[in-house]
Amino acid sequence: MSTSKTWNSKWYTTKKVRPIFVETATEIVVITVYTYYFLRGPL
Questions:
Q1: DSSP annotation string for 13-39
Q2: pTM exceeds 0.90
């Protein structure tokens, strides 16, 4: 996802979100979400 915004008073061009979840027959439970900010495209 290319966003070009600021976060924590720093400029970034790309944000990558990686959710960690458990899927059951009736629901999806998100355990945590890792968010990565890049000055350029991801490596």
A1: EEEEEEEEEEE-SS-EEEEEEEEEEES
A2: no
